[in-house]
Amino acid sequence: MENQRSSRLPGFYQKSLPERIGIIAKWVGLSQAEQAILENATGLSPQQVNQMVENALGVYGLPLGVATNFQINGKDYLIPMVIEEPSVVAACSFAARMARSGGGFTTSSDEPVMIGQIQVLDVENLQVAADQILAERESLLALVNDPDLTIIKLGGGGRDIEVRQFRQTTIGPMLVVDLLYDTRDAMGANAINTACEKLAPAIERITGGRVNLRILSNLSDRRKATASCLMTTEALTTKNMPGALVAKSIVEAAVFAEVDPYRATTHNKGVMNGVDAVVIATGNDWRAVEAGAHAYAARDGRYTSMTRWWQDENGNLRGMLTLPMAVGTVGGATKVHPTAQIAMKILGVSSARELAEVIVSVGLAQNFAAIRALATEGIQAGHMALHARQLALAAGAQGEMVNRIVETMIAEGNIRLDRAKSLVKAVLDKPNLA
Ligand code: MEV
Fold it and tell me: Distance from the CA of 105 to the center of ligand 1, in angstroms?
């Protein structure tokens, strides 16, 4: 039944906010209480806020939108997105609709293995110490894999231990012990940090050195997710450009970002517009995902594009995005934030890996929408249309009047509040114009 639901919701954007809540409630089966949380639009109570951070004052609201049209591995998804920037949700939905022409997004992901780091100093012989740690690998893993821990019962826990040597640093030689730890459906920061702290005394005993830091790495490159998609040339065709030319121009835009870090930064910002919006909506740590994504984009020593776009032998456009994706479906704000829980329900994912795969699909979609716009009509056309719409609404336009006023302001090249107000007044003075 669930797989038969379509995320194609034509006209969704034209509905009123309560109507949209009603449609989503039906789509995912939201209770009255859950609908009320969306209607109240605050998400968190003062008590909850007070428990989450120190010196709490209040709640800072951000819009929660829903991107439509997503099909990932043959399953339809509605995507909750928290973002203040206009046009991101619309662009994402547009890209997902276009990706349907090529069968939607196809994804894969690694096992949810994170890295915890232990910094060891004052070691006499780095190589000897490294060999000794590796020789004790099994007993060290046994130390963190306490069968009474919930995460171990769920099938997670320490998987491996690796050692890296930094022979010359400004503070002398340094050994870094990396604990590879499977966090299952948790983001896992707490589990890893606890495990690293537990290992530290044993590491000191084995190496004769002194442990300083014990902390996870946000470069979670053992926990990557990949999305790819295909856009047919037919789907890419615009009023003014044949699809083959659109595909070529998008590839040219993508190569610009591959070779130039200045462009890569902006290109990747577009990817993260999509990624962060879902990471935030689901109560996950977007700073962790951001840090990991940009570090991964510089993994070869030069900052480059996160995505790749190319044309296949039939001229169709193909895209791919791989990112480290340390997100969880249990614990943290995902568990305590009522709106994050609703976002999880809207998404309907059953594991952290599935969530990670959805997120990279959204990142790829967002990137496509941005470079398609840039390589065709330019980014301002869409932005100005949205801006004109906001001005028309602010000027008091309603219903069909909104579109007419938007079109007039765009045609005149005069997108200003005073013009919107005078157009609204003209319509109201002469109702037969409406
Ligand atoms: C704006 O938020 C994002 C873009 O600048 C991304 C890009 O240039 O690819 C449009």
Answer: 21
